[in-house]
Write a structure and sequence with these properties.
about 20% strand
Length: about 375
């Protein structure tokens, strides 16, 4: 119905973006699903409200909005929500963002909706990678929580909402008192300058929440929760009995009150999560993308790849397990595939004569794969 279309779509915004439905709202903005007529794609359109709070609250919200606008297009990672552009039309400031149809992780944080542990470990591993990448760009997220991890239709997670981001080493004034209470680290309440362990703690609490449907602290009032955090009192995740010990250990170390016992880097956190993959694979009978990433990045062929490029290899590649004696590329056949041997080895045979061996970590078929003519090459062609 035309009457249901928000007024912001009446002017120049409406000429470019066709309103489809309202997706949600936050403290300062409304988010709509819209169709970008110029780009011919669905987008999430975030529009700041003209009146949002007063006094200091208003100033803080305006600062957070400016943060998001400054970061538009700066972060490029497979597990970070892409912001296409930022602008202002008819007095309305807006962000045009990638639209993901799978909702958020907050749908999986209650006892009856929990995801399998293998899926949680996979998601958290990817979030760790995304936040580590953000750190290399000089940013802390500072509001990691299930509601800020969006899911594509295929389940791919993407961290969103960098409005509260803290610029490491930044010279301009930054808002300090931001975040969501259950995910704030104890040192936040002691006036410690934000650092990477802030986001590591929040990611650990998110993992705890996704695995248990609860928080590591029992109190409900703000003052009591802060007291529990500062005293280091938390409920062990081991109360859930079907979780691998390595996964429990990784999550509980991430939320340690004592920063000296908490992970100091994302690499440490990821390594600890990876130690749980073998048991999780045995439980689920499937290999997660995160487990495949860990396997590929240890292969010599990928030694020169960035971690983002290895993720892309995981996403576009298809794993195959072959029985001994299976023919991979038949002699004389056309083939345009790049093969990388993850484990085991391949024999190269020509007219019954063994010519050589392709060992673990090596590749074959790459010449055909990168040939700019796209011409299929024949096995044993010279």
């Amino acid at each position: 119905m035309a009457n249901d279309v928000p007024g912001v779509f009446a002017g120049a915004l409406g000429q470019r973006f066709e309103f489809e439905r309202r997706l949600g709202h936050g403290g300062m903005a409304e988010v709509y699903l819209a169709r970008d007529r110029f780009r011919e794609r669905q987008v999430a359109l975030k529009i700041v409200r003209t009146t949002h709070g007063a006094g200091e609250d208003r100033k803080q919200l305006e600062h957070l909005w400016l943060n998001e606008m400054r970061l538009a297009g700066r972060l490029r990672h497979p597990y970070i929500l892409e912001i296409y552009e930022a602008g202002n039309e008819d007095g309305h400031s807006f962000l045009v963002m990638e639209y993901l149809a799978g909702g958020t992780l907050s749908s999986y944080t209650t006892a009856g909706t929990l995801l399998p542990p293998s899926r949680v470990a996979d998601v958290v591993f990817k979030v760790c990678h995304a936040l580590e990448y953000a750190n290399t760009q000089g940013l802390l997220h500072r509001d990691v929580k299930p509601a800020n991890v969006l899911l594509a239709a295929d389940g791919t997670p993407k961290i969103s909402d960098f409005g509260a981001a803290y610029l490491l080493g930044g010279e301009h004034t930054q808002v300090i008192g931001v975040g969501t209470l259950p995910y704030m680290p104890p040192e936040h309440f002691e006036g410690v300058e934000p650092g990477v362990q802030f986001d590591i703690y929040a990611t650990g609490v998110m993992a705890y929440n996704l695995l248990s449907g609860a928080y590591p602290h029992l109190s409900e009032t703000q003052a009591e929760v802060i007291h529990e955090k500062l005293q280091g009192k938390s409920v062990p995740l081991s109360r859930r009995k079907d979780l691998p010990e390595a996964l429990v250990a990784a999550v509980e170390r991430a939320i340690q009150r004592d920063r000296a016992r908490r992970f100091a880097t994302w690499h440490e956190f990821r390594e600890a999560l990876a130690r749980a993959f073998p048991e999780l694979i045995a439980q689920s009978a499937t290999v997660s993308e995160s487990a495949r990433f860990e396997a590929l990045r240890r292969i010599p062929f990928f030694a020169g790849f960035s971690e983002t490029q290895v993720w892309e290899a995981v996403r576009i590649g298809t794993p195959r397990s072959l029985d001994k004696g299976t023919e991979v590329i038949a002699e004389g056949s056309d083939d345009t595939t790049l093969y990388v041997v993850e484990s085991g080895d391949l024999e190269v045979v020509h007219k019954g004569v063994r010519l050589g061996r392709i060992a673990t970590g090596e590749a074959c078929g790459e010449i055909a794969f990168i040939d700019p003519t796209g011409r299929a090459r024949r096995a044993c062609e010279r």
